[in-house]
Each structure stands twice: as C-alpha cells, then as structure tokens.
Amino acid sequence: WLLGSLGLASWSGPLVAVAVAVVLTVGILMLLGPRLDALQLGDETALTLGISPDRLRLGLLVLSCLLVGAVVAMAGAIGFLGLVVPHLARRLVGGRHRALTPVAALLGAVLLCWADIGARTLLAPQEIPVGIITALVGAPFLLLLVHRMHREAS
C-alpha cells in the first residue's frame, strides 16, 4: 500500500501515453454507460435488453487490466483511492455510469493531487510516500462507509 509515488512523474513520453489512455478509457466507459446501467439490473435484464453480460464483463476486465498495468507502471501502487473514490462519486452523482465515470476519474485525480501535496509538505524537505497519506485518509473513510452501509441494510 505504500509503494506509490509521484515524485518522479514528469510530462515525458510514457506519462503522456498513459494520460491519453486514461482519457480514452473514460470516454469508452461513458459510451458503455447504458450497458453498464443495464448490467447493474442483473444478467437476465441485460440479456433481455440485448447485452451479453459475460462478454461485457470480459471486455471491461481486459480494459481495466491494461489501464491499471499502465498506471501502476508509471506511479506504483497507491492504495485506497480505488476503494474510496467510486463510493464517494456514487454518493455525489448517483449510479448512472455516464455521470459516474467522469466524476470518479476527476475525483480520484483531485484526491491524489491533495494526497501528493500533503506527502510533499507535511515533513518537508522530506517526502512521505503518497500511499501513507491515502491510507491515513482512506482507511477511516472506508470503515465509516462500511458502517453506514451495514446500518442502512439493517
């Protein structure tokens, strides 16, 4: 959880390529929004609407693996953002994927920037790994979220 860092990030060729891949992926996911919404209703409903759930899931898995691999290769593993951000975004805009996807992407970017600023300034001139900051903020938030979900379910 503590391996990620933005300390060596610069707008060089590989980072630009990853940024373009992220933007393209968000665009693809927005186009797939109605299919993802149908998939949320269950496999039978999706099949009734002419969507192959297994094929869609496989495509999303391949797309996710490629993108996560590229991003982790650039910045390392930065924990808790992927666990917390989707829940925050869903609370902000609801479950419709055309709105949820760009909001989650932007919210993740903003929270990562804030965590990086904190990592660089809290003990300046020494830099804390950004994963420590995301864990310190993300873990309590995730516990609060799980507690709320459990309370709402009962």
From TrEMBL:
It comes from the Bacteria. Keywords: Cell membrane, Membrane, Transmembrane, Transmembrane helix, Transport. The chain crosses the membrane at residues 12-32, 58-88, 100-122, 128-146. GO terms for molecular function: transmembrane transporter activity. It is found in: Cell membrane. CDD domains: TM_ABC_iron-siderophores_like. GO terms for cellular component: plasma membrane. SUPFAM superfamilies: ABC transporter involved in vitamin B12 uptake, BtuC. It holds the Pfam family FecCD. InterPro entries: ABC_BtuC-like (IPR037294), ABC_transptr_permease_BtuC (IPR000522). It is a multi-pass membrane protein. GO terms for biological process: siderophore-iron import into cell. Belongs to the binding-protein-dependent transport system permease family. FecCD subfamily. This is ABC transporter permease. The lineage of its organism: Bacteria, Bacillati, Actinomycetota, Actinomycetes, Mycobacteriales.
